[in-house]
Amino acid sequence: xxxxxxxxxxxTATNSHPQKDMPDTGVTRHFxxxxxxxSIAPDGVQVAGIVVNGQYPxxxxxxxxxxxxxxxxxxxxxxxxxxxxxxxxxxxxxGTPYYDGVATVSHCPIVPGTNLTYRFRADEYGxxxxxxHYSAQYSAGVHGPIVIHGPDVxxxxxxxxxxxxxxxxxxxxxxxxxxxLTPTGDGLPFRPFSDSNLVGGAGQxxxxxxxxxxxxxxxxxxxxxxxxxxxxxxxIINTGASAFETVSIDGHTMTVIANDFVPVQPYETPFVTPGxxxxxxxxxxxxxxxxxCGDTNGPDGRxxxxxxxxxxxxxxxxxxxxxxxxxxxxxxxDPLGSTVPAYAIPAAATADTTITLTIGLxxxxxxxxxxxxxxxxxxxxxxxxxxxxxxQGSAQTSIFPPEQKSTTQAQTALCGSS
Length: 418
What we know:
Elements: E1 28-40, E2 47-52, E3 61-64, E4 68-76, E5 86-88, E6 115-121, E7 126-132, E8 143-149, E9 158-168, H1 173-180, E10 196-199, E11 223-226, E12 232-238, E13 245-249, E14 254-259, E15 262-269, E16 282-289, E17 301-307, E18 359-363, E19 369-373, H2 386-392, H3 402-416
Parallel strand pairs: 1-4, 3-8, 9-12, 11-17
Antiparallel strand pairs: 1-2, 4-6, 5-7, 7-8, 9-10, 13-16, 14-15, 16-17, 18-19
Helix pairs in contact: 2-3
């Protein structure tokens, strides 16, 4: 996607600033989303979900770097009714902070029977996703992939598109929230175990383990076709609610070329765009949960890689996995020393202002755990989003510690003046 008729012709991932060099394409991409309840069984167990346009995962949003994206979102969540909002993960939203999609912060949630049209710029390029940002609703199925085409940091032959990796729960999202907000009695936060791990929106939960009467069948793994002698790009997205995921492909090494919307200097890893070093055949793509970062009661996630010429109906993978990744108690990504941006934006030698933010997870007097920032928690107001309150001069600064008030007001004023 690096030249020719592309709007970024002449620009590369190593010589162009992702925001300052963004092309003005003059193009608006239009999408219509309907959020509604549906009975779904991504791992074979039939549950009540909430989905986008009747499908799980939701439909792909695809655009070019510099395009405008316009999504008309209809809330048709009934029986019972529910609010919703959609967040566009990773976009800067410069000039459009009110379309960031975070209910109680950037706008009011969308009520059933109404709609909201989001409009924002594809101001970065790469792979990302959208998801509900109302409570924990996206764990019920409200999410989908985003691909913004732009300059490439390396050449490849085949783009396989997005592959979602996700934990999956049979329980409803609101009940999971209730459990998280209930004291455990042991002084530790409640950590829900997922029922399955999905690759490409599919998994296989052992039907023998279903004890609550839910219907269960065996669904096929998601499959992807490789071409011998070709280099393939996989756009892997962790769309899970809790789990820290590690991905591998049996018999293959992979080269990381981007993290989120940031092209990076390529580096190889056995865990997470495969090369051409494997013989033609069928291989498992595996997704592992890290036990300390969101564990599962189900098996590891699996997808299937078939090379061209292999009949997926008659050939099942017999490959064995790479050695499982070591425990990752810090739940951390690859070291920053490995993930070097392809286009480095140097930091200023000195800072004009230094703000220290300390993130914590603490129990209140009732034993309920909540997240804190500098010792305080923000409790959202559905009727008075923080951005609106800042513009109107009615920000509830009492919810922040006194030393944070001036910082919060300054940040809000900058958003309101953009």
